[in-house]
Amino acid sequence: MYYALEYLQDMNIVxxxxxxxxxxxxxxxxxxxxxxxxxIEHIQNLQSLSKETLHELNLPISTINSNVAMxxxxxxxxxxxxRIARVESACAMLQKRYDELDYMIxxxxxxxxxxxxxxxxxxxxxxxxxxxxxxxxxxxxKLEPTVIVCDKIGLEKVIDNxxxxxxxxxxxxxxxxxxxxxxxxxxxxxxxxxxDEVELVKIFERYxxxxxxxxxxxxxxxxxxxxxxxxxxxxxxxxxxxxxxxxQMRFK
Length: 252
Prior knowledge:
Blueprint: H1 2-10, H2 13-73, H3 78-108, E1 114-118, H4 119-133, E2 138-143, E3 147-151, H5 152-168, E4 176-182, E5 185-190, H6 197-200, H7 220-230, E6 234-240, E7 244-250
Parallel strand pairs: 2-4
Antiparallel strand pairs: 1-3, 4-5, 5-7, 6-7
């Protein structure tokens, strides 16, 4: 203790402050490590449990699907076939939830989730799905065969969001949406109320809505922009008041 005090007396004030700050920083790092390590271990355990549970869910879904397919081949009764169709629909919903959970786990663990996608087929599947939700909407679809590498589930969410936005902002009872894909340029166009130049600058802000009367929380285009930035996709928006809005995504 005597030598420590004598050493401190020999130091100038700058050196003393530096040593003191270093000790405080080291103490803070040590305390933080004691606090964070159990939390990291807990998160890792949760991720491991989620992966194991997800793996176990895949087996019953596959079993149901394969058995339903076999029963369907040997059944001609219309009532039974309708029941089988409902089971198939429920399994498809379960499979969708499975895929989304798998996607979320991979995303949280920062795993690479890009894959090769036949974009024209994916777009047609999304249009077919949304047509059931919006039977009165006219979808004008023109797709060129296109293969890209991207985050499939994330892209599905973006496409659904763009089409859903176009429908919401369309005018009148007869609503139509144009979806085209050519030379890796995807265009989703509505013929609705449009957006003026002032609002066009703000549309990527989280919770911003150009039309307050339209139902929604204003987070869609913000999510689309983040996805495009992360995946190196050029995002272009063109709009005219009372003529409509065209959103384009240019893939590499």
